[in-house]
Structure formats: C-alpha cells, structure tokens
Design a protein that fits this description.
The complex is a heterodimer of chains A (306) and B (485). Chain A is an all-alpha fold and 306 residues long. Chain A is 70% helix and 0% strand. Classes of the chains: A mainly alpha (306), B alpha+beta (485).
Chain lengths: 306, 485
C-alpha cells in the first residue's frame, strides 16, 4: 500500500521526535517525585554531546562490537518507518507486523552479541538478563499482535490499525486481552520499572543499561537513540492498535500526539508508584501476560465458532 | 563486676570504676577468653601495642557497661589466636597481623589491610560446575568510597562473597600517637563523618575514664542530645537509602527530605550539619539558647509526624514488601558469632543496645527496641530504624527542654593508664581504647560499629540473588571510611 506524502513525512518526523518520549517521561517522573527535573529536550542535548565525541572501543573488540550500535539503530529506524500513520505507510519495507517483531529481535540480538565481544562482566550480566526476559517478552509481543491480527484478518499493520477503529473488533475480549498484554510489552521494551530501572547504573542490577556500559561517543548516541526509538515505537503502536483514532491525516496525528503524551504520563506514574521487581519475578509477570493472551485466543476461537 | 574465680596466673594490673585490666601469660590467653565468654562478657575489640618495644596483645570485653581488658606478651612469631573462640575477632587479628607483623599460630591469616595481587591469597576458592566470579569495585558507578566485592556465583545466585575494604588506610590511629589527649579527638572524629559524634564521644569517654573523670549531668545531657541528633539523621537517611535500593523513589525522596530537615536542625543548633567539633575532652563548649532549643523541638515534632506517616506509606506498599521480605537474612547465632551490633543485630532478635547501660550518658529507663518479627532480613533491619525513631524523638524532646550550657567533668574515680568506652552509634556499638602517658596518647584504637558489622554483610549476601546485593548492603548502610581509619 503506497502511502500519501503526509504519512511518509510523519514517519520520518518520528525518527526525530522519538527522544522526546523518554524526555517527557523523565520530566513527569521528576515532578511526581517532587524534583524540578530536566526539560523534556534533555535527551537531545545528551545526543548532541555524545555525537560530538570520539568513539572509544575496548581492546580486542571485533566488528560484532563495532557494528552493534549502527545495526540496532538501523533496525529501529526501519521499524519506525513501518508503523503506519494516518492509516497508511510508505510501503518501502512492507507493513507486516512480523517484520516489526523481527527487527526488534535483530536490535536486541545485536546489542546482546556485542556484550559478548569485549566480555565485560556487567555487560554480559545485563545482556544475559535481557535475553532471559526476551524469552518471555518476544512471545508476549507476538501473541498480542496475533490477537489483533486475528480480529483484523491480516498481519498487515495498516489493516490492524484500521480494524482497531471498528467497534466489532475493538469490543471483543480478545482485543482487550491483547491490550493488557501490550501494556506489559511497553514496560519490557522500554526497560522501565517495575521490570528494569533506566536511572540506575548500580552495577549489579542493570538489565538494559549493562550492554551499553562500554560504549562511548557516537556509538552511545546511536544506542541511546535506539532506546528512545523503542519508547516511541511501542507507545505509538499501543495508541494506534488499542485506541480508536481518526484515520485522516491531521486529526490522526493530533489525536496520536495526545494519546502518546497520556501514555508517557501513565508510564511515569507506574514507574514512580512501583518499586523494581525481584529479577526472577519478571518472567512470572510476563508469563501472566502470555496466559492472558492465550485466554484471549481461546475466547476468539470460541467466539469465532458461534 | 567480678567474674567469679579468675584462672590462675592472671594478674590484676589496674582497676578503676567500670574497667579492669589483667595480664595473662600467652599460654593462658585462650583459657582466659573462654572464661570471660562463659561469664557473659562480650568481645568488643582486640589490638596490638608495643610500649617499650615489647609487643603486647590486648583484648577487651564488655558486660553491663563495664570493661574487662586482658593483655599478654606473645611470641611475635606464634601469637595465640582467638578466631575459633570468637569469630568476631577475625578482622582484629588480621589487622594486627598486617599492621604489626604479628604472626598468629594455628591459622593462616588472610591479609586485611595489605592487598596482595594474587587472588588465591585473599579469596576463598570455590569449585564446581558453572561457578564463576563477579568482581565489583573498588571504583563504583555511584559516589561511594572504595570497596571491592568479589562474588562467587552460580547464575544469579551468590555462593560466597569476599570483601576487600581498607583501600585508603589513613593511619589515623598512628597519627593520634604522641598528640595531647585534647588534640587527638579531632583525629578520632574524622574516622567517619556519619558517626562523628559517636567517635568523638567514645574517644572523650575513654580519655575521661583514663583521667578518672566523670561527666557532670549537664555534660552527659549535651552529649546524649548530640548522639541522638546524629542517630536521627542517620536513621532517616538509611530508610531512604533502602527505598533507593529498590528504585522506590517516593520513599527515597521523602526520607531524603526529612534527613535534610534533620541536618538543618543540626546546623541551627551547633553550626554544623554533621555535628563536627561539638564534643571536647573533659568538657563541653556547646551552648544552645532556650530559643534555639525550642525551635528545634518544634521542628523535630514536625519531622516526627512526617516520618511516621511516610514510614506507614512505605511499610504497606506491596511492591516494597515484595522486595524487603526474606532477603539477606542472618540468624541470631551467626550475628552473635560474627559480633554484629546495632540495628543489624537487633533485627535478628538480639536485644543488645549499649544505650541500656551507659553511666556516662543520660538514658533514663531506656528500653531496647525489638522488631515484631526478628527475621534478620532486609525488612527487619529497615524496620529497626523506624522502630528506634520514636525513642530518639522522645529523648531529644526531653533533652532539649532547657538551654544547653558549657559544662565540665568532675573527678570521680582512680585514674588509669588505659581508658575504654563503648557508645551506641546509629549502626551499633563503637568501641574506643585510649592508652596514655600523662596527657599524651600512646595508642588509640577505634573499632566502629561499621567495622564490627561488615563481616555480617558478607554472610547476609550468601544464597541471595546478585541483583539483591545492593539492597542487602543498603539495609546495613555501613561506612567504608570507618575501615580506612
């Protein structure tokens, strides 16, 4: 499906706007904690600072380590260009949700593999935990997508988004189960509390921050942008798939902006009101999400039979 | 305070109110220690000194606020060891071996203060399928003193933790030697900022005992008030730190705010947020007007209400309970063996608090706080702080009821060459020994509560998950500088 120029423009704008999302969450969080906090533009300042710095890599690292930042940033950039805006997409990489799942996995694989290259203890620990989480998080993401895809009758994101606006899809239990599960996906993919603590560099507790530990300069800038892009991606998807938004260009974008902002506030609230979980409880939580998806699947099959 | 029939060969060297020093032959050293332990004495410190070039080993014990020190002149190549009788003496003996070259017989002393490069010289060897080591520090990601933690783990589970502290030995105890008693107080105080008052008061008490002086009631009131002000801001800080350890920012922020308010009270009353230079030997120069004391009491009442509300919020928060309960537990038996003190020991059900027997301070009818469930885990340790706060607030309210005026000690008992003192810091019993020649320090030994508790941290980490360690560490909230003294 060839998208109109506005949709394409907004997809590219997403690449630039992504760092605003973590910036906004951090700001709301600071306010909730009684701090003044940095401006939501802080991630941009960090990126500018890092972009100007030289890349320093540990001794004896190979292309696996050096490629990881660009590879994961590229994967996320492609993923952002797949997510439809205003009911259409550019169509360069197709718009299949399975491609999206694959791209996210590729980015995760790239950083995890890069953690093995210098062999630093903390990066490996973080990467190991990240991979352990992803054993549960990836099926969860896929199942949530599948539930929406079943309602839409297609794995094409454009049709899935369009279906979310139809009352007969949006009102099915399967759709609501998918929405619940996707809430957990948002927390895992963004690496936020109660799953992970993005503010800590406490060596022993790091998950997502661990593999990033050795990176510096432009490499780190790319990895930080990747993390911001993940925020953007999952929140925009959550808004598009589970909130019935108007599908015409200006109204869609305005509504989307409002919903994503509301989601940022919600994430900040969750993060402030909950302590970080014990690490081995996280798979249990994600397992509950998977169970919800299976119930949704069962209800869809049951509902489809009648 | 006599302890039945002393073993033969022990010779009374000196005695005064609350202290007795006995010399024993090296081959009776261990018997004498067993005898003291059987009679309810608790080990509180061991050190080496060499007056007139002869190495002397000294061990101090405490019972009901009275001290008993035994001393012997061992063969420097074969000193008798205590670690099987008193595991709590392990660090003291290792320190003595590192600093004075004393060799203890019958056990291989692992270095404590000197840091050999070869791993096998200071770590425990752990063998088995899939075991590996995780090394953290001495440089950390946060603003924190130097400490190296070597975890032996299987997956995320900690099998054993080897601690390596003492990175920045400052030689404070040596710096104090040769200084007049009055001046060396500054040295003892600087051992640690968070326990500055405890260290100073312990040092001052030890000097005063050596000089045969007793603090006047006014002086003891001043010092008690300072000690409780120190406990207040430390306890508030420790609860906040535990919340920070699990990423629970509301708890962290509110207790950080309360700690700041408590420290501002400190500044208003004494001119220093950490209460530095508020204690003097044999006297007190601190003056607090009725007006300031009243303002402080009002502010403290406010802080008390806010702290109680905040603690209830934290206590009944499900996600906090999930993290605190059952993590980093130590048993009462282990805590006793390792010589754990303070809230960490009380959290396991040991009702020990130096404040219940301190003739030199003002603690009328002091009741030792006890947790409802002495499980010895992170929850119990954090809860101990909250349980001790009301007592501290009440004490401060009555101690600051009047203006505080300069005060002096009065002659009370026979002077003695070696003075000893134990003071309850926010982290437990801090023990100080001062040996003097006239009014000059010949040996200072400061064994702080952090020093006493560190081995318990290593034990508490065992069998927990690696990511839980920062929380376990924070539930003790010990001081690194106390080792680097």
């Amino acid at each position: 499906m060839r998208g109109d120029a506005t949709a394409v423009a907004f997809q590219f704008a997403g690449l630039a706007l992504a760092p605003l999302v973590p910036g906004m969450i951090q700001m709301v969080k600071a306010r909730l904690q009684g701090r003044r906090g940095a401006s939501p533009l802080q991630p941009y300042r960090d990126l500018r600072r890092l972009w100007r710095k030289r890349v320093v890599a540990p001794h004896d690292t190979t292309f696996v380590y050096r490629m990881a930042p660009s590879l994961s940033a590229a994967a996320l950039a492609c993923a952002l260009l797949i997510v439809p805006f205003a009911g259409s997409t550019n169509g360069w990489f197709g718009s299949d949700m399975l491609v999206l799942v694959g791209l996210l996995a590729l980015a995760r694989f790239a950083t995890a593999a890069a953690a093995w290259d210098p062999g630093g203890g903390f990066s490996l620990m973080g990467a190991g935990r990240d991979l352990m989480f992803s054993v549960f998080a990836e099926p969860l993401l896929l199942l949530a997508f599948v539930l929406v895809a079943l309602g839409a009758g297609s794995t094409d994101l454009v049709q899935m988004v369009a279906a979310a606006g139809h009352a007969h899809v949006a009102s099915t239990p399967a759709h609501w189960c998918a929405a619940l599960a996707f809430g957990l996906v948002v927390l895992v993919e963004t690496g936020r509390q109660p799953i992970d603590n993005p503010d800590t560099h406490l060596e022993l507790t790091m998950v997502h921050e661990g593999p990033l530990l050795e990176y510096a300069g432009r490499d780190l800038a790319m990895l930080q942008w990747t993390a911001a892009a993940r925020h953007w991606l999952v929140l925009v998807l959550a808004a598009s798939l589970f909130v019935p938004l108007p599908l015409t260009a200006p109204a869609n974008v305005l509504a989307l902006a409002a919903v994503v902002t509301a989601f940022c506030v919600a994430v900040a609230f969750v993060e402030t009101s909950l302590a970080k979980m014990r690490i081995l409880r996280v798979p249990v939580l994600l397992g509950i999400g998977i169970a919800v998806c299976v119930i949704g699947l069962a209800s869809w099959i049951g509902g489809g039979a009648t | 305070m006599t302890a039945g029939n002393w073993p033969a060969d022990s010779r009374l060297q000196a005695r005064t109110d609350g202290a007795e020093i006995r010399g024993v032959p090296p081959d009776r050293w261990r018997d004498t220690v067993s005898f003291l332990l059987q009679h309810g004495y608790t080990f509180c410190g061991l050190h080496v000194t060499s007056p007139a070039g002869v190495v002397e080993l000294r061990a101090a014990f405490i019972r009901d606020g009275a001290f008993h020190m035994i001393t012997c002149q061992p063969d420097p190549q074969q000193a008798p060891t205590l670690i099987d009788l008193v595991p709590a003496a392990a660090w003291d003996e290792r320190e003595a071996a590192d600093l004075s070259g004393l060799v203890f017989s019958d056990h291989r002393t692992r270095p404590l203060i000197t840091h050999p490069e070869q791993l096998e010289r200071w770590t425990t060897s752990v063998r088995g399928h899939d075991t590996h080591q995780v090394a953290v520090g001495p440089i950390h990601a946060g603003i924190i003193e130097s400490g190296h933690f070597r975890f032996h783990v299987v997956g995320e589970r900690i099998l054993h933790l080897d601690l390596r502290l003492f990175y920045k030995q400052r030689g404070l105890e040596r710096a104090a030697v040769g200084k007049p008693l009055e001046q060396a107080l500054a040295v003892a105080q600087r051992a640690c900022a968070a326990c500055a008052v405890t260290n100073s008061v312990a040092y001052a008490h030890a000097c005063e005992q050596a000089l045969g002086l007793i603090p006047s009631s006014e002086l003891s009131r001043t010092r008690t008030a300072l000690l409780e002000l120190e406990r207040l801001y430390n306890h508030l800080n420790d609860i906040g730190a535990a919340c920070a350890g699990i990423g629970f920012s509301p708890g962290n922020m509110i207790f950080a705010t309360l700690k700041e308010r408590a420290q501002r009270v400190n500044r208003m009353l004494t001119g220093h947020r950490f209460l530095f230079d508020t204690v003097q030997v044999t006297r007190s120069d601190l003056e607090i007007s009725e007006h300031s004391a009243l303002a402080a009491r009002r502010e403290l009442r406010d802080i008390r209400d806010a702290a109680e509300r905040a603690w209830h919020e934290v206590l009944f928060h499900g996600s906090v309970q999930n993290r605190f309960d059952g993590v980093g537990a130590i048993t009462a038996a282990d805590a006793t063996a390792l010589g754990a003190v303070g809230p960490a020991a009380r959290a396991c059900g040991l009702a020990h608090d130096t404040r219940s027997a301190t003739p030199r301070l003002t603690y009328p009818d002091f009741q030792v706080a006890a947790p409802a469930d002495p499980s010895g885990d992170v929850r119990a340790r954090v809860e101990m702080r909250a349980l001790e706060l009301p007592t501290t607030f009440e004490l401060l309210d009555s101690l600051l009821a009047r203006a505080i005026r300069p005060a002096e000690c009065t002659p009370g008992h026979e002077p003695i060459a070696t003075g000893m003192a134990a003071v309850e810091s926010p982290r437990g019993r801090t023990f100080c020994t001062v040996e003097r020649d006239g009014t000059t320090v010949t040996r200072l030994r400061l064994r702080t509560s952090s020093y006493a508790n560190w081995p318990a941290v290593a034990l508490a980490a065992t069998d927990n998950l690696l990511p839980e360690f920062p929380l376990i560490n924070k539930s003790f909230e010990l001081c690194y500088a106390c080792c680097d003294r």
